[in-house]
Structure prediction request, 244 residues.
Amino acid sequence: MMTLADNYTAVQERIHQAATRAGRDPAGITLVAVTKTWPAAVVATAYAAGMRHFGENRAGELAQKREAITAQLGPDAAITWHAIGTLQSRKAKMVADYGDIFHALDRLKIARKLAQHLAENGRHLPVFLEVNVSGEASKSGFDCTRWETNREQMAALRQAFETVNDLPGLAAVGLMTMAPWDVAPQIIRAVFRRTWQLAGRLQTDLALAAPLQLSMGMTDDFEIAIEEGATHVRVGRALFGERP
Ligand SMILES: *Cc1c(COP(=O)(O)O)cnc(C)c1O
Prediction:
């Protein structure tokens, strides 16, 4: 039987190999263990196995699990809590209070809500802007489906990035994307590659000093994502098995 610790070792090894294939330093890749739907006890076991970055897609679950784990392990456990899911504005306060980094900023209304709450609680929240480059109607995120040729899309993304960086408490640190479901690996690869290229373009256009980070890749595609430049992979099932 594979234990959680075994799965963790196996995923780390796959990350290492994908990075090596791409000529990248594996240390530049953060594995976010996605614990959504799993109880806090599973997070505690993952912590004992060495994991320190946890991802939750629902604000309420993030708040509740962070409280439980902090009560169990104390405030100095050095965990980073990643809010990875689409956020509704009425839940923004929870992410402002309990998230250490937010991966799915898909509209400026949410950024303004977060900034309001961050002004109240005095916290700082790095965010990824979610981009939709695949054109799947079901995907949220800034429309970047034709960013290479569509000046308006590119201008809107630049504007969003700058607006977020001007808001107190928020810092735009990179781009996040989701690959389309049920498509060939080369299509997934193209989506990740175009997202990496988009980040490069944004970096140049805005003359950003720090390199942009890229949150992309899940259980079924994290190796492709790493080969195409991901700095954060969000992995659930490969670590914890099928969700309850
Ligand atoms: C659930 C989820 C993941 C992890 O999915 P797996 O396929 O279990 O690796 C990653 N990102 C987001 C936004 C998710 O909601």
